[in-house]
Structures are given as structure tokens and as C-alpha cells.
TrEMBL record, chains A, B:
Gene responsible for this protein: truA
Organism annotation: Kurthia sibirica
Chain's role: Formation of pseudouridine at positions 38, 39 and 40 in the anticodon stem and loop of transfer RNAs.
BP terms from Gene Ontology: tRNA pseudouridine synthesis
Lineage, opening ranks: Bacteria, Bacillati, Bacillota, Bacilli, Bacillales
Superkingdom classification of source: Bacteria
Protein name, as recorded: tRNA pseudouridine synthase A
Pfam families, per database record: PseudoU_synth_1 (PF01416)
Subunit record text: Homodimer.
């Protein structure tokens, strides 16, 4: 009997060339498909479909994917069965059985990402792959919060979209954009109904420039209105970014 | 003018074959000596002396070493000058000028280590090199604390010393041995005037066996009295161990 499975996975993006399969590169998708294909006796390649891709060095704590299985492994042992064969930089957190028409990408209702800056003067060697170092610079978070208000809501976010994209409709809705201090680390948590290519990293890079006084918060209004990538700030580095939650309709 | 410098360093032990120089291996000591030697114009190898060695995959947040320098770099820029040349898995936290007879090993007054177990059911991929997984097992910490009472004080700690050691006097004093929960992670923090080879990892491994009911806490009294390594538990894995502080007389 064929069952459709929804898997929630976490991965340390450090040693991956991103999520999506690419020739001659180590990718998250390929590692998972390899394990599933072996589990299914190599009859055919078991393909997995994720909520979307993540770039090289970007992490995930709650990426979601779906695949079809013919195995009779009980649901409560499925995650463990995958984890014993997967490399330790990918962990399956949860496996659920879903309706046969569930689609991890088409059904996405929203996503939440986290971006982390490490503001220690001497960066901890333990955080070098997991946060973006600021070399001791502490930004003005109140200004970053003011700037964030111009990003909330529904806009054409062309200003925050990498130029090399084929997506035509760039209207998205950002429903929440918050900042939290965790010790010396600043977290930006952003939720929306969908994100364009590099959108979170460009928002992080632009708000960072506000935080260090290179731009003022009110400029964000013009940047968003410009519908032009060149008006926004630099793309923040990948290692600070985490795909945290993917939302689906109940 | 020759100055003696005391450096406090942190390192991620994951990609090192330990602290101490070994032929054809990547070690912390060699990386630091390479950078110092280049900074000193390659006139001769600048040797560094640490408080003691750490094994492969063991971490440090407060290892201490000394070396002599003829460079006129101001004290407040010395750490930065080293950090720009060091690999990112070693960071110099602090450099101080000390008396010419300061010795990072001979003058050690005491040390503090931390051992971390990750008790999550599915281990976070982000903690795989930084904590020892328990596969969801949560130990009885109250029993571990009772057992720890038999370790406190001055004893011949042969029971907690790796067999392959050349040290003759195995009497040491453990001044504190505490447990703390940090979320799903259990930390053991141990302080003493000195530690034998693998002593912290054997204590961690033995107390862990108490925590999971494989031994009872009162057995620790006999283990310590036995002066015999074979009575104690397994050596806990290296990636959970951190050298945290080295103490010197004021």
C-alpha cells in the first residue's frame, strides 16, 4: 500500500551545497533520497519534494518535505529508521502520514525564518558556522524595529529579491518581523506567506545597515516602494539563516 | 625587548587531533606556533606552552598558554593581530603581559572543566560535535549528585586515570562537582587542583552509569577506594568536554 508521508527535518547547512540536488555536489535532498531509495530496495529512486530550497550553508530546524512510501514501517518508527541511515548533519524530527494529495511546496501557507548575528568582540569558534559575526558591533535595534514596520504587510518585494530569479509575481505578505536578544546574539524572526529568492538575507542585510547607522529607518519606505533591488542593502551571509517553520492549512 | 605573554584561547576541537603537536596531524599548538613564527619574521620557531593538553575533539573556552615575544605590538592589539591570521576554529580571547618566570603549566593552581550531554530524543544536528547524545535518555541527576559527593576532596584518583599514563603521583583534589540543566542539556562542572589523563571523561562516564541506574551512587565510595581503573565506568566521548578555566595564583 502506498502512503504519502510528511517529514519535518533539521539540517546543519555547513557542509551542503544547499538543499536541492545539483550534479557533483553534496545536497540535503540527495542524501535523503539515497537513504529512502536503499530502504525501498532500490526498486526506483524515491523522490522527495520540499517546501522550497535553501542555499549553501543555510540551516533548517523545520524544513518540510513529502514522499511516497510502500514500506510498512510503523509511523512511530519511521523517523528513527531514517535517522540511523542518514548522516548526522541531517535529522528527521517527525514523520506523519498525510492525505495523498498533500504537497509540501504547493500547499505552503507560510514560513518563518530566523537570522542570527553574533555581536561578541571575539567571535566564539563554536558559532562560526551558525551566526554572522559583527566583530563586536552592537546595532541600534530600536531603529531596526522602526525600519521593520515598513516591511510588514503586502508589497511587491522586488527590492528584496535577488536579480537572478524567474519568479514573475513578487507580491508577498510579511506578517511578523521581530527582534530578540539571546545573550550577545541578535535574532531577527520573520514570518510571511512566502519569500522570494534571497529575500530574508536581503532584508537582514538592509536592516543591519539601518542598525549600524549607514541608513535611517525611514528610508525603508522608499526602498520598498522602489520595486528595485539596487536600492536595498547587501545580502547578509548564509550561515546566520535558519528555516524554522513551514505552515500548512490545518 | 623580550616580553612574556599569557594568552587565553578558545577552540573548537572538532577538526584537531588534540592540542599538542604531533607529526602529520592538525593540532592547536602547531596552528598557533605557525602564526607566531610568521609574525616574528620566521627568525626561529616561536614555541608556546599550554596549561596542559586536550585530546582530539575536546574543546576549550579558556585554555591558557605562554610564549615570549620580541614584537612591539601594543598589548590591546595583540589578540586581534593573532586572530586575523589564525584559522576561525581557534580564537585568542585575551593576551596579557606577565612576569618573565610565569609558566602556563607549572604555575597552574587549578582547572575547571565542563561536560555536556544532550538529552533530546532526536539529537540536534547543530550539537553533534558539541555535546554527547543520550538518544533521549534522561538520567537521574539526584543520584549523580549523591555519587559526586564521594569524588569531592583529596584522593588517589587511579580509578579515574587512563591506564597508559606515566604520571606517578595520582593524588588530586576535586573542590567542586556540580550539575546544571540548560534546556535539554545536562552540564557537569568539575573544579580541582589538577586532573589526570582522561580523568574528567572517566568521571563523566561513571556518573552517567549511576544516572541511568547501571550503578548506584554508594558504589562510588568503593570505586574511589579501589585505586583501580577497572572498577570505574567507561570513558565518556570527547566531544562533550570543554576546558573552561585555568586558575593561577594571583
Amino acid at each position: 500500500m502506498k502512503r504519502r508521508m510528511k517529514a519535518t527535518i533539521a539540517y546543519d547547512g555547513t557542509n551542503f551545497s544547499g538543499y536541492q540536488v545539483q550534479p557533483n555536489q553534496r545536497t540535503v535532498q540527495e542524501e535523503i533520497e539515497k537513504v529512502l531509495t536503499v530502504m525501498h530496495k532500490n526498486e526506483k529512486i524515491v523522490q522527495v519534494t520540499a517546501s522550497g530550497r535553501t542555499d549553501a550553508r543555510v540551516h533548517a530546524t523545520g524544513q518540510v518535505l513529502h514522499f511516497d512510501t510502500t514500506l510498512s514501517i510503523p509511523l512511530d518508527r519511521y523517523a528513527h529508521a531514517l535517522n540511523v541511515q542518514l548522516p548526522s548533519d541531517i535529522r528527521v524530527v517527525k514523520v506523519e502520514e498525510v492525505a495523498s494529495d498533500f504537497h509540501a511546496r504547493y500547499n505552503v501557507h507560510g514560513k518563518r525564518y530566523r537570522y542570527i548575528w553574533s555581536c561578541e568582540k571575539v567571535q566564539s569558534p563554536f558559532r562560526r558556522f551558525y551566526a554572522t559575526p559583527t566583530n563586536g558591533v552592537t546595532p541600534d535595534v530600536e531603529e531596526m524595529k522602526k525600519a521593520a514596520q515598513y516591511i510588514l504587510g503586502t508589497h511587491d518585494f522586488s527590492c528584496f529579491c535577488a536579480a537572478n530569479t524567474s519568479v514573475v509575481d513578487k507580491v508577498r505578505t510579511v506578517t511578523a518581523l521581530e527582534f530578540e536578544w539571546h545573550g550577545n546574539e541578535l535574532h531577527m524572526i520573520i514570518t510571511g506567506n512566502g519569500f522570494l529568492y534571497n529575500m530574508v538575507r536581503i532584508i537582514a542585510g538592509t536592516l543591519w545597515e539601518v542598525g549600524i547607522g549607514k541608513r535611517n529607518s525611514a528610508q525603508l519606505k522608499d526602498i520598498v516602494a522602489s520595486i528595485n533591488r539596487t536600492t536595498a542593502g547587501k545580502t547578509a551571509p548564509p550561515q546566520g539563516l535558519y528555516l524554522e517553520t513551514v505552515y500548512y492549512p490545518e
